[in-house]
What does this fold into?
Amino acid sequence: MKCPFCSHPETQVVETRESEGGDYVRRRRRCTACEKRFTTYERPEVNFPAIVKKDGRRVEYRRDKLEGSFHIALRKRPVSTEQVDAAIERIEERLLQLGQREVLSNRLGEMVMLELQKLDKVAYVRYASVYRSFEHIDEFKALVDKVGE
It folds into this structure.
């Protein structure tokens, strides 16, 4: 593995850890040239279904976009990175279990809302208010009332 700091082609693995669920391997590496340390993650390569947008476009699934949605909804909320990673893992697992080549974006959005509702109710309301594009304040109020129950 090439060093991200100096681009030296040789690095040494200092420590290896498997995730709790065994889904990925985390390795701490040290560059043999500049001595800096960095972390790499190894995951099996899996073919996720394509995401079909509301306008009919098909885009490939991207974990970073899902992470971005979670981080925006959870901004300044007391939820750990580990909890977010676990939620994303559950969503990815569900996507794979569907066994479909394509998934509608609204189905993925519903999966995100389900996970956010478990993690943090404020984040859930934030995400739902944008995702559902409420046209009337009554719709928004009904969502907040439902969450508050």
